[in-house]
Specification:
Order of helices and strands: HHH
Radius of gyration: 24 Å
Number of helices: 3
Largest sheet: none
Oligomer: single chain
Shape: rod-shaped
Structural class: mainly alpha
Strand content: under 5%
Helix content: 55-70%
Amino acid sequence: MMGGGMRVPSGFVPQLISLLLSDKVPVYKKWLYLLLVAGYWLSPDLLPFIPLDDLLVTLLGSWLFIRSAANDLEQEGDRRRRDRNVIDVEGKVVEDDD
């Protein structure tokens, strides 16, 4: 950890990349995340009195994207479990009287 600063969880970047590449995350969320973060980086410095504002906004945006995308994946999993076709039957053996 760097001197008194913020620590990024070890799986943060791989999880972010995995969600950005996943087909299960809606494309509009990916574009929204990328446009907002890139837009902030390319805009004039809006908070010049905070030297790490670009990094903080990127981390906050990434964290929000990960939470939102993970929620989408969880809801999809719940929907798949709910939508499975299940046939519940009872049976009995009937003997043939030939």
